[in-house]
Structure formats: C-alpha cells, structure tokens
Predict the 3D structure of the following.
Amino acid sequence: MEKKLALSLLLLRLGVFIVMLMWTLDKFINPAHTGKVFAKFYGLEGLDGSTLTVLACLQLIVILAFVAGALRRYSYGAILLMHAGSTLSSWQQYLDPFNHLLFFAAWPMLAACIALYLLRDQDTLLSIDSRR
C-alpha cells in the first residue's frame, strides 16, 4: 500500500507541476497575456514586464521546489494557495459553465493540491525532503 500511495502522490505532484510550469512559462513568453489575466481575474492592472518577470521567477522557484519535493510544507502550501487563488478568482466563469467548460478543470487540480498538502509527509518518492 505504501508504494502505491507514494507513486500516486508522485504522479499527482508531476501533474500539478506540468500545469504550473506552463502557467509560469506563459509569464516569461507572453507577458502581455499574463498582464491581461492579472487585470481581469485579480484586478491588478498595469503590471509592467519587469514586475511580471520577477513574479515568474519567484513562481518558477516555488514550482521547482514543489516538483523536487523540497520544503514540502512551504512549497506545497504555496502551490495550494496559488491554485486556490486562481480557481476562486475565476468565480464568474462558473456562472456561465457551458461557455467556460475548461475552467472546471481547476477543481480536480485544486483537490489534488489539497491532497498533496495534506499527505505531504507520505509523498516520499523522488522527494528531496524524504532523503533528509
């Protein structure tokens, strides 16, 4: 059972990482898009390219720690807070579900983030923290 749990948690961690990595890369590659997202969903208008680059760098550090299983309490918690903020800030999209179906994919990912945070001590496969 422990091996199955460890493998399941690793797969969840990798799945969440892939999504977070793409969102982070988008901040570097297409800062104009990121600026529009921050304006629409977070009410943060007028963020310049250098601010978005700093945010992208910080997010990249967090997601790399997360995928490595390092500082699990903090990195898993930060991922959970980032994704919860993203999911909840999109509340208006859920009011028109059939025109925004992809937004509903955020909920299973949020559940995965919660599960990973709650089970972080059991997430030992390929985890830096488990080697200490």
Q: What stands out?
A: The mean pLDDT is 92.
